[in-house]
Structure formats: C-alpha cells, structure tokens
C-alpha cells in the first residue's frame, strides 16, 4: 500500500491532472492521494495559494472581491471542463469562497488558515470528481473525517499522536481517497494549517498513520540533485539518501522538502521516494533510514544558504570559566533567538545566527547584554555570511574529506571563515562570505562529483 502526494505544479492544469490520473491508476497499491492547491502553469502565472492571499487581503481591507473570486474559480473550472464534470463547479466553488468571505473575523486567529487551506480543499474535491468521471472508484475526504488532529497553533500546527489511531481505520478503504494537504483540525474543531511545505507534511502524516510500504512524493523534478541546478550545470541525481542526509541538505538550502516534512515518515520508518509527474519512469530519489555500503555514496550532496551572521566572543581563560556557555545561551533565549552553530576555541566562542532574527534594535541590545553579563575582552558581529554544507553518511569512513574541501577552496581563493562538524561526521558546515557562495559550492561539487 502506498500514499502518493502531488505538488502544486503537478495539479496546475487539466493536462497535469490527467498525468496524475494515469500515475495513480497505473499501480493498484496507490490508494491514498494527497494533493496541493494548483500551482503555476507557466512562469508568468500565479499560484492559487497566492491568489487566496490576495483574496484574504481584499476582504480584510474591504476591497472588491468579485474579480479575484472569478480568477480563483476559473483555475478550477478550466480543469473541470476538460474532464466534462457534470457538477456545477463554478457556482459551487464561488459559493464556498463567498461563504469564506462572510466568515472573515480579524479577531479570529484561524481566519487566515481557512483562506489558505481552501486552495487544497477545493482542489481535492475537484480531483475526486475528475477521477470518478474517468471511471475510477474514488472520493474526497476531509482531514477532519480522516482523523488529522493538530495543535492549536495557527499557520504552524503540529500533528497530535492521537491522529494515527484514527487514520489507521481507513487502511481498508475500497475507494481511492483524495485528501487535501496542508491542514488539519484542532480538538475543538478549528481548521489549522501546517507551516511551509504543509502538503508534504500531510502526505508524511498519512503515510505514517497507515503504516504504508512507501510514501511517493511527485513534483516537477526527477528527484533531489547533489547540488542546486542554479549553481551547478546538470548536477548528479541523488538515487539513494538517508533521512538524516536529507535533513542536513534541506537545512542547508535544498528546497524539494521543508525540513519538517519528513518527520512523521522518519519516526515511522516509512521509505520515501521523490519522483517527477512529467517523467514518472525516472528512478527518482529513494530516502530510507539506512542503505548498504554497495549503494551508499561517501558524499551525497552540497547545499548552501545565505542570510547568516556570526557573533564572536573572545575572553582570556574562557575555557576555565564554568557555566559561561549556559550564560550565553540564556542571553539568546531571553531575546527569543535561535542559534545554528557554535564552534569554539580555548578563548573564544562563535555563534552563528540567521540574520532575519536581528533588527538593529535587537542586535544592539543583544550585544549590550553580552558585554554586561559575559564581560568579553573582544566582541564582534559579522554579517553577510553563507553556510555551505557537505553531506554524506559515508564521509566518516573516508579519510581526507576536510583536507580535500579546504584545498578546493584554496584553489578558487574562497576565504573560509569557519568550520563546524559534529561527532557523527555526517555533515561539514563551512561559513564563507555570501559573495563567494556560488564559487564555494562549485569548487566542492567538482571536487567530489566530477
């Protein structure tokens, strides 16, 4: 039994939905289908989710909504027409959006969630109708009926463990179930959305709840590549990767998955495969807990992300000062700041943060608190950094990885600001100036993959 999820580009048009139908019906074990809202049909197009955000703001500011409602509904009626759907999709969906508008309440923290989730919810209803019109025994199922129960955190819901006991009851469904991604319901019945990558999270939750053999995630690329195609020409496709490797790569900039999306499948040890709706015969990228050494690569990928800064605290005999790291972390916690890495020497500690957390005011107050409570000999902050991650479970068994990396940087005059590596040796993080990010990624890629 399999759960199969289709992203926005996979359901963006009638042509794409026909591909979805062919893919699902080509394998009888594909019984549970999670869908996103329709994405872009071309580079100039808008995602339905973006249209819904515009709709939300129009309602919030008492602007005219007729045009935006027609634009949203037209995305669905175009697909419905191609499948000769008998139901009056235009009037039905228009009525649902007007009811949504009527429910607007700026004091209700779940209002935005209802607007955002309607893209997936309408699309699941439509795709179920397309399947039935094509002679497939399928039906739409709302996440509440399915049993997806979440925490009461608007736009940032987390799955509750009780959900899995409810979802497993659907494993013997005679019909293919079409499930809208991106949202669940709180215990008191409020619709609440997941964070970024929400439909991926839904797919992972359903796969874990049903304890399926495989979770298939269909998108518009052949799988996960060993480097960003924006930085490297035709990078190698990653055929096999572990959950931990993907977690490291998504953290450091890979965008196929949001880094929370795999958590339910990871906990349940469900294999995940990334495949291409437009090229379904391609092998794709298979993600599991472990692989044999015969298929495992020493290095699976190079990822990068900009938008970091580093605070460096220097103090003579710092290593002898009991509790100093705790005091530093307490200061960060007092400002509600998360740190990413903390490499250290005997007399200095460097704290890498994401820059978006720091306003000028927060930065000034933070440095003042560090001065007052830590009393460093020297305190500095450097902005404009990127992190580059070299990732692979097999690196621990290959001597010289770090030496080869730094030599690659030296050959291209990449100035290395910092190195951080955990004891498991699965990932090496390099901090560099952001203007050298592209050069750094390419130098590592052509060292380990060319």
From TrEMBL:
GO terms for molecular function: aspartate kinase activity; ATP binding. InterPro entries: AceGlu_kinase-like_sf (IPR036393), ACT-like_dom_sf (IPR045865), ACT_Aspartokinase (IPR054352), ACT_dom (IPR002912), AKIII_YclM_N (IPR035804), Asp/Glu/Uridylate_kinase (IPR001048), Asp_kin_monofn (IPR005260), Asp_kinase (IPR001341). One of its GO terms (cellular component) is cytosol. Substrate binds at residues 49, 120. ATP binds at residues 5-8, 219-220, 225. Residues 390-450 form the ACT domain. GO terms for biological process: diaminopimelate biosynthetic process; homoserine biosynthetic process; lysine biosynthetic process via diaminopimelate; threonine biosynthetic process. CDD domains: AAK_AKiii-YclM-BS, ACT_AKiii-YclM-BS_1. The keyword Transferase applies. Signal peptide: none annotated. It catalyses: L-aspartate + ATP = 4-phospho-L-aspartate + ADP. Keywords: Amino-acid biosynthesis, ATP-binding, Diaminopimelate biosynthesis, Kinase, Lysine biosynthesis, Nucleotide-binding, Transferase. Pathway: Amino-acid biosynthesis; L-lysine biosynthesis via DAP pathway; (S)-tetrahydrodipicolinate from L-aspartate: step 1/4; Amino-acid biosynthesis; L-methionine biosynthesis via de novo pathway; L-homoserine from L-aspartate: step 1/3; Amino-acid biosynthesis; L-threonine biosynthesis; L-threonine from L-aspartate: step 1/5. Its EC number is 2.7.2.4. PANTHER family: ASPARTATE KINASE (PTHR21499), ASPARTOKINASE 3 (PTHR21499:SF67). Catalyzes the phosphorylation of the beta-carboxyl group of aspartic acid with ATP to yield 4-phospho-L-aspartate, which is involved in the branched biosynthetic pathway leading to the biosynthesis of amino acids threonine, isoleucine and methionine. Belongs to the aspartokinase family. This is Aspartokinase. The lineage of its organism: Bacteria, Bacillati, Bacillota, Bacilli, Lactobacillales.
């Amino acid at each position: 039994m399999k759960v199969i999820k289709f992203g926005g580009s996979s359901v963006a048009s009638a042509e794409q939905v026909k591909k979805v139908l062919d893919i699902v019906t080509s394998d009888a074990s594909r019984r549970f289908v999670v869908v996103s809202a329709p994405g872009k049909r071309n580079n100039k197009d808008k995602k339905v989710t973006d249209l819904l955000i515009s709709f939300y703001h129009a309602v919030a500011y008492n602007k005219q909504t007729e045009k935006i409602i027609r634009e949203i509904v037209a995305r669905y009626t175009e697909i419905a027409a191609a499948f000769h759907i008998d139901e009056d999709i235009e009037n039905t969906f228009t009525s649902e959006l007007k009811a949504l508008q009527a429910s607007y309440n700026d004091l209700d923290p779940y209002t935005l969630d209802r607007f955002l989730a309607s893209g997936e919810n309408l699309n699941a209803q439509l795709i179920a109708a397309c399947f039935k019109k094509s002679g497939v025994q399928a039906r739409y199922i709302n996440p509440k009926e399915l049993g997806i129960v979440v925490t009461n955190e608007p736009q940032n819901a987390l799955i509750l463990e009780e959900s899995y006991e409810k979802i497993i009851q659907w494993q013997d469904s005679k019909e293919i179930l079409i499930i809208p991604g991106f949202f669940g319901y709180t215990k008191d019945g409020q619709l609440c959305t997941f964070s970024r990558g929400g439909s991926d999270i839904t797919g992972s939750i359903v796969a874990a709840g049903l304890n399926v053999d495989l979770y298939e995630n269909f998108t518009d690329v052949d799988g996960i590549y060993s480097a960003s195609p924006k930085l490297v020409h035709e990078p190698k496709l990653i055929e096999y990767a572990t959950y931990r490797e993907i977690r490291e790569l998504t953290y450091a900039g890979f965008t196929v998955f949001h880094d929370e999306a795999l958590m339910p499948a990871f906990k349940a040890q469900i294999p995940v495969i990334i495949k291409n709706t437009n090229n379904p015969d391609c092998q794709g990228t298979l993600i599991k807990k472990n692989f044999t050494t015969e298929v495992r690569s020493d290095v699976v990928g190079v990822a990068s992300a900009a938008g970091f800064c580093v605070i460096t605290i220097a103090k003579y005999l710092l290593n002898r000062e009991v509790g100093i790291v705790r005091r530093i972390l307490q200061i960060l916690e007092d400002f509600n700041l998360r740190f990413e890495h903390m490499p250290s020497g005997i007399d200095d500690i460097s704290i890498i943060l994401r820059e978006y957390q720091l306003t000028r005011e927060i930065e000034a107050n933070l440095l003042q608190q560090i001065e007052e409570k830590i009393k460093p000999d020297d305190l500095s902050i450097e902005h404009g950094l990127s992190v580059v991650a070299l990732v692979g479970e097999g690196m621990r068994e290959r001597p010289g990885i770090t030496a080869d990396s730094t030599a690659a940087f030296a050959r291209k005059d990449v100035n290395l600001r910092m190195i951080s590596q955990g004891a498991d040796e699965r990932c090496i993080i390099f901090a560099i100036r952001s203007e050298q990010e592209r050069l750094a990624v390419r130098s590592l890629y052509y060292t380990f993959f060319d």
